[in-house]
Every structure is written in structure tokens, then in C-alpha cells.
Amino acid sequence: MKKVGNHNSISRILLFSLAFLLSFSATSYAQDAAAPAAETAAPAGAGDAAAGKALFNANCAACHKLDGKMTGPALRGVTERHDTKWLHAWIKDSQKLIKSGDAAAVKVFEENNKSIMTAFPQLSDADIDNILAYTAEPIVTKTPGPEPGVEVATEGSGVSNNIILGALALVMVMLVVMLFLVNNVLGKIAKANGIEAVQKEPSVPIWVAFAKNQFLVLVTSIFLLLASGYFVYGFFMQVGVDQGYQPIQPIHYSHKIHAGDNGIDCKYCHSSARVSKNAGIPSLNVCMNCHKNISEVAEETATPEHSKAFYDGEIQKLYDAVGWDKAGQKYTGVTKPVKWVRIHNLPDFVYFNHSQHVIVAGVECQTCHGPVETLEIMEQFSPLTMGWCVDCHRKTDVKMEGNAYYDKIHAELAKKYGKDKLTAAEMGGLECGKCHY
Fold first, then answer.
1. Please, are residues 301 and 333 in contact by the beta-carbon 8 Å criterion?
2. How far apart are CA 121 and CA 106, in angstroms?
3. pLDDT of residue 230
4. How many domains does the chain have?
5. Rounded distance, CA 218 to CA 42, Å?
6. CA distance 108 to 193
7. Which run of H or E residues covers position 330?
8. pLDDT computed for residue 73 by the predictor
9. Which of 255, 282, 257, 247 is nearest to 268 (CA)?
10. Do 376 and 284 share a domain, yes or no?
11. pTM passes above 0.70
């Protein structure tokens, strides 16, 4: 019998190569190890730096930073610039030291725009030593490394994954080649034995059979017409509905950080929502109430999407807009308008009063605007359609406590119709003129 070829030897060679690749990738993966995070150790000072950090945050952080100028100068390494005894006297009563004519005190006072420093006579010498120990700590540098409990893929593991994927691709190619060879060998064997493959009779194309069936064509045409009408209706009903609209603003503002992490009330920034039809765009002066002393965010504020440098850069955009000189701690008078992109926009023929809903009805901001305290980038949460508003008016009970006007209407409705609850719809909230001019 004629031999086609030694397929066993080829298979053994391919399997041996695959085993070699897998063992090499496993070895390289085992030898890779992530470098441990190294931190520079801070020398021990005369005081307790940990206690000093808490005191610094409670008493000094409003006007001072360790590594940047605010209302007062940067304080890291202040013990190297001034005597400890002098620092004790300065912290307890800086004005007394200035009035005494102390040259160093007068110099510091003039270098910082003659800003009067708050006196801290309540701090003991030990407290001040702790604060000075905290300011004497060197800058801690961390080598990038995985956080506790978080698995981070190393460079070596990435290489091994590529090798494994390459090996799997090679196996797939081998299988395709082997199937082709087997099919070729079987074809030769059938031909040598005089075996002929059974030829299939040509069948009628499916589109020809479909066209000949008039009933099926009619049913399909009706179905396509109804389906087309449904989708066209749905398309036109979504015109002007911008639910999920999430534009990029000229200055990145994180509601998650402000309203969520820091717990700032919505109506602190959008104060006109309590007394006006519109919620209004907060003035940049409102931002500067806090950011005059907050020129950068904490390290833990950074997210995988936005780094600390990104947030600090957005704060600098705010400073450029209002004309705030961070180094000199003063306004330059040079301002730039911020072109905010509007997110929520009702048609001109729709009347909506924020104060009526926020103050009179007591509706929470999250009812219409969603969980803003969790949103990094603000978006339109609700559809703001007519059906959505009408449905809310039908379900929402009017708060009548302490309102004699509502009490009177409710008493009349209760007498006539036996109503226990009074909804906004029953108060006339579905009348066209209530929302349309």
C-alpha cells in the first residue's frame, strides 16, 4: 500500500513546540515580580508629627499649605528658616512680635501683603512643637506600586499573556491545516477506490419560493408596514428629548466631589432655585468662596479617570477666569468669561418655576436631576417630557400642612368627593394654562 506521509512525526514536532512555548511562558511569568513600593523615611523630630498634622489641619490649613503659598507662606522647612523660640512667639501672638519691632516678624508681615495672622495663645509649647515637627517632615515620595488588596498586572505577566495568545493562535492554525490535509487524504483514498461523491440535486432558491407564495408575501408586507410605522413613530417621539445628554464643560466640575464627598447643599450654589423661576448658573465668586484657599486637591481625590494634576489644572482655569493671582494672593482685574454649556433646556412655550417646586412643594433636587452627588460629569437624568411631568402631578400628593389655602380646597374636595389625599392633578395641575402660556 502506498503511504501518504508520516503524519505522526509532524504531530509530535508540533505538540513538542507547543509544550515548549507554554513552559517558557510559565517560567517567564514566575520570574517576574513587582517592585515593592518604597517610601523615604522621615527623620524623627522633637515633636509628634502625626499629632502635629491633626493640629495643622485644624488650625493652620485655612491659610497655609506645606508646599505652596496661600494667604500665608509655605510652611515646610520653616524651622530651617526661623528659630524655634521665635516661631513659638510668632504663632502665639504675631501682632505683638511685629509691634515690638522684631525685624524678622516685620519682614514676614510685609512679604505676605500685611495679612494679619490669627493668634493662637491656646496652643501649648508641646502643640507647637508637634506642628513644627510635621512641617519639618521631608516630602514623601512613593514608588508606583499596587494598593493593598489590589492585583496589578506586571510587565512580565503582559508578555506571558501575549505568548499564550500566540500559542493558542498557532494551535488554531495547526488544526485548520490538519483538517485540510485530512480532507485531501480522504479525497485521494475515495478516488483510488473508485468512490464518487453523491451530487445534490439543485434546489429552488428561497427567494423564488417566497415570491411564488402570495399569502406569505401579503403577510410580510403588512408586518413590514406596521413595524416601519412603529419605529418612525418612536423616532419622532424622541425628537427634542435629550435624556442622558452629558456635554463637556469648559471647566470640569465634579458634583461627586462637591455635593457628594464634601456634602455641599445644592442650593448653596444654585441659590436662586429657592426664590426664582430659574435655578441659575452660580457666579464664579461663589466658587472663590472656597477655592480662594483651596488651590489643589488632596491625593486621595484622584480617580482612575482623573488625576490630581487634572483637578489642579481645572482649579487653575477658575483662577484664570476670575483673575486670581495664586502666588500674590490677590485679584489682577483681568478676567475671562466662562462659556458654560447648558444641559437642561425646556421649550420656550413651557413654564416651570423652581421656587414653586423647591420651596412650596418641597421637591428634592434629586427627584428631577437624579443622584447628582454621584455624578462626576453632570447629565440630564430625566426625560423632561410632558408625559413625565403629568405623571408626577398625578402621583404626587400636595403638602397642605400649615397652608390655609390648601386646607380650604381640601376640605371642599373631601366634602364633595370624599378625598383623603389631594394630588397636584386634582389641584388643577393638569390644566393646559398651568404650564403653557
1. no
2. 20
3. 95
4. 4
5. 85
6. 107
7. strand 330-331
8. 87
9. 282
10. yes
11. no
Which residues, listed in sequence order, are joined to residue 61 by a DSSP beta bridge?
A: none
* Residues 264 and 294 placed together within one structural domain of the fold: yes
Query: Which pLDDT does position 15 carry in this prediction?
Result: 53
- By the 8 A CB rule, do 383 and 284 touch? no
Question: Residue 142: helix, strand or coil by DSSP?
Answer: strand
DSSP helix/strand/coil, 414: helix
pLDDT tens-digit series, residues 20-72: 555 545 454 444 444 443 333 334 446 888 888 888 888 888 788 888 887 88
Q: Is residue 422 part of a domain?
A: no
Per the CB < 8 A criterion, the answer to whether 249 and 341 are in contact is yes
Could you tell me the three cell numbers for 47? 515633636
Is residue 368 situated within a structural domain? yes
Identify any residues that bridge with 436 across adjacent strands, giving them in sequence order: 350
pLDDT of residue 49: 87
Residue 231's domain spans which residues?
206-237
Same domain, 82 and 129: yes
From 355, 347, 339, 340, select the one nearest 278 (Cα to Cα): 355
Task: Name 324's bridge partners.
Answer: 331
- The residue-averaged pLDDT of 342-369 equals 92
